[in-house]
Specification:
heterodimer; A: mainly alpha; MetI-like fold; 2 domains; 11 helices; flat; B: alpha/beta; Rossmann fold; four-stranded antiparallel β-sheet; 35% helix
Chain lengths: 318, 262
């Protein structure tokens, strides 16, 4: 009697153990998969870009200024600079406001304000990029054309990066404004998290000697969280670097090196999205586009890894 | 229901007067109609079992209570006859006059020197570098830390031991020239020798400062107190000169607490 009982319980036990083992192994594979995917994509991009990389020196590709695939000219430089310009304008427009909003939410706002405002800000991230693109097309491009460009003309025009030569409103500034709004929720929520890692004991130590809240923020909270705030900005920048459709719709897409925020630009993601799959009969065209994708991927990966490392260290401290 | 013996007798030289003070966390009443006067230049010890509202009472004296969200306060706290909860009172002035020594030492993330100079800078209390240096030295001496740190002023404050950190916090608090020192169980995180250091500093300082200490150790209360406040469940049960309260408590609860019954 006893023996059968123990036999049964042993059967159950082994069955449960097997189940457990199966679950943990399946989940492990599922977890490893995305990690592998990054490696696979990077390697695949590299292999597919190999033809052009063996044909041209990497420096020629990166510094080449002319993009004429049917003549065999594959200069990435206008696209790389276009990406940098649009991203830089977006980040510069977005960051100051985002940091102030985060400080307000983390330091000044009542709990009630915070619980209402935070989800709404997060909701900005849920708007599809194409909707941002349409908004940019219908509101920002005319705004740049009708308000900002005339504002610069004759006044700030003499400053090279503000000169207006391009009369449509499409361009870096429009793209930058759209990007600024798109990356705001990410920068705000990460900066908010980072600010919340500062212990209240520290805030109270400062307030306790009669410092104002602003003095406490400036002298204690910000110095303490600066690496994390920078990481939040870098994360926002890497999001901006890869943003495709919304930027593509407002930025003009002319493969020329920009010199002013009112110029048009042609960022790397737009180049790839606009052209991949067309005119593939041109030799090396496929390899060139995938090479562009590889450059973009590597830059964004580096940005992401760096900021994630900094943020993980800060949040662990919490 | 508890019967509250309210302390009615006027203290000649009251530094803080609390009138009809009620404090709420959300809807929960944490302080019930507190009326008390705290004598100048003495050490007042607030004691009572945990959760009795002693820290809450202490935090109403430097307006730290309002830093907790969703709190509410009615009544008055008068410092030198002026209600610190008046609308036109500058809260940073209150906190300059009423310094706080927290339960755990909380050195600011900067050098030892800068920790002491911090408050002086905030209030622009000195004219030049030399004066700041003198000020930092002066207050580190008062806090009994100068000897130990004079050669390492530029090291981060966190490199000090916990006991040293608490004396640094004392120096930082004193540097803005307060009149009142609050201590929220200021030795509870410290080892016995460090605690002794802090206690002896507080005893030295009581001639110049009104000191109010919250403690849960009876022995510390007996060592420090000139004046005692005993609280229970948010109410003030008994208050009076230390000798009287310790030797002849009027209220049954106080007697039980002093006998260690709870």
């Amino acid at each position: 009697m006893n023996q059968t009982l123990s036999k049964i319980s042993e059967d159950i036990k082994s069955h449960r153990t097997k189940q457990d083992l199966f679950a943990s192994r399946t989940f492990f594979v599922l977890t490893v998969f995305p990690v592998l995917l990054i490696v696979i994509i990077t390697v695949a991009l590299y292999l597919r870009a190999q033809p052009i990389l063996s044909e041209y020196a990497l420096t020629d590709l990166l510094y080449g200024e002319i993009w004429k695939p049917n003549q065999g000219l594959f200069g990435f430089r206008p696209f790389i600079l276009g990406t940098i310009w649009v991203t830089a304008v977006g980040v510069i427009l977005s960051v100051p406001a985002c940091i102030l909003v985060s400080i307000y939410l983390a330091e000044y706002a009542h709990a009630r304000t915070r619980t209402i405002a935070k989800p709404i800000l997060d909701l900005l991230a849920a708007i599809p990029p194409v909707v941002y693109g349409v908004w940019g097309l219908l509101s920002i491009v005319p705004f740049v054309d009708d308000v900002l460009a005339p504002l610069s003309k004759g006044r700030l025009d003499s400053i090279p990066i503000l000169s207006v030569t391009q009369p449509t409103g499409f361009g870096i500034l429009a793209g930058g404004i759209v990007l600024a709004v798109m990356i705001a929720p990410l920068i705000i929520s990460v900066t908010f998290e980072v600010l919340s890692t500062v212990s209240n004991d520290l805030r109270h130590a400062s307030l306790g000697v009669g410092a104002t809240q602003w003095q406490t923020i400036r002298n204690i909270v910000i110095p303490q969280t600066l690496p994390g705030i920078i990481a939040a900005v870098v994360l926002g920048a890497s999001r901006a670097l890869g943003e495709t459709i919304a930027v593509l719709m407002v930025v003009g897409n002319v493969p020329k090196i920009p010199t002013s925020i009112f110029d048009t630009a042609y960022p790397l993601p737009a180049l790839i999205a606009n052209n991949y799959g067309e005119m593939m009969s041109i030799p090396l065209y496929d390899a060139a586009l995938l090479g562009a994708a590889l450059v973009l991927l590597v830059v964004i990966l580096i940005f992401n890894i760096l900021s994630t490392l900094v943020l993980q260290r800060m949040l662990r401290r919490k | 229901m508890l019967r509250v013996t309210r302390y009615k007798e006027k203290i000649m030289d009251a530094h803080i007067q609390v009138k009809n003070l009620n404090a709420y966390y959300g809807k929960q009443l944490a302080l019930k109609d507190i009326n008390i006067e705290i004598p100048k230049n003495q050490i007042t010890v607030i004691m009572g079992p945990s959760g009795c509202g002693k820290t809450t009472l202490l935090k109403t004296f430097n307006r730290f209570f309002e830093l907790t969200e969703n709190t509410q306060l009615t009544g008055e706290v008068l410092v030198d006859g002026e209600n610190i909860y008046n609308k036109d009172i500058d809260v940073t002035e209150v906190r300059k006059i009423v310094g706080l020594l927290a339960q755990r030492p909380s050195p600011l993330p900067m050098s030892i020197y800068d920790n002491v100079a911090y408050g002086m800078h905030i209030h622009h209390m000195r004219k030049n570098r030399e004066e700041y240096k003198d000020g930092v030295k002066h207050y580190l001496e008062i806090a009994g830390l100068w000897e130990e740190v004079q050669n390492r002023l530029n090291e981060p404050a966190t490199s000090l031991s916990i006991g040293q950190q608490q004396r640094l916090c004392l120096a930082r608090g004193l540097a803005v020239e307060p009149e009142i020192i609050l201590g929220d169980e200021p030795t509870s995180a410290l080892d016995p020798i460090s605690s002794q250091h802090i206690e002896s500093r507080l005893l030295d300082l009581k001639k110049q400062y009104t000191t109010i200490i919250v403690t849960h150790t009876l022995r510390q209360a007996k060592r420090l107190a000139d004046y005692v406040i005993f609280m229970y469940l948010g109410e003030l049960i008994e208050a009076g000169p230390a000798k009287e309260v310790f030797s002849n408590p009027k209220h049954e609860r106080t007697k039980q607490y002093l006998e260690g019954l709870f």
